[in-house]
Amino acid sequence: MERGKFITIDGVEGAGKSTQIKFICEYLKTKGIHVVLTREPGGTEVGEKIRALLLSNSTGQMHADTELMLMFAARNEHVQNKIMPALERGDWVLSDRFTDSSYAYQGGGRGLDNSRIAQLELWVMQDFTPDMTLLLDVPVEIGMSRVESRGKKDRIEMEAMDFFDRVRQAYIARSKEFPDRIKLIDSSQTIEHTTEQIAVILDTL
Ligand SMILES: Nc1ncnc2c1ncn2[C@@H]1O[C@H](COP(=O)(O)OP(=O)(O)OP(=O)(O)O)[C@@H](O)[C@H]1O
Ligand SMILES: [Mg+2]
To answer: Distance from the CA of 49 to the center of ligand 1, in angstroms?
Structure first.
């Protein structure tokens, strides 16, 4: 049995991740690929409980290191109990956010040192990485205006614009550091414009 491929999709709020995921699933299905769709933080029973703690406004103040470690605790559960078993079965896995989010939000946004994040990454993942990451890039104001009508913001979405600007810049820096894995996609125009770019990239897999 050939091992499946692991694809992640990442980017700031309103970049269009959830929108494009629907297209990606359909597109891969037409190629006869069985896709397991999942998300971070979460994707498992324990992971979704950690997600609720991380994102609920009722959680209150949390030290940035605690937030980082909870993200990786949820990720460990996700990798060990969901992602790896699916890939070993030959399924493909598509995750809405993954480790690049930790570098962007806890690194860029919260200002944690990348080397600390890398320590946890090494512990949880060893040399396991996505086969491909689709990074949807959009100016923060455009992304925010797309999600404005969604109503109540979660604990991380409550952050100010400059936080999300740092998040976006950290994502862009990651894409420069790992140009083979992370495909930077302009997601500032129409949904179709983004979809077309994704289709071209998926055809290279
Ligand atoms: N290229 C686009 N142009 C205009 N609107 C878009 C575009 N892509 C997505 N949208 C719309 O913007 C909103 C947010 O998109 P979506 O939920 O896919 O973003 P997201 O990246 O998943 O956000 P979040 O990080 O908050 O989950 C949706 O209403 C979607 O229809
Ligand atoms: Mg989404």
So the answer is: 25
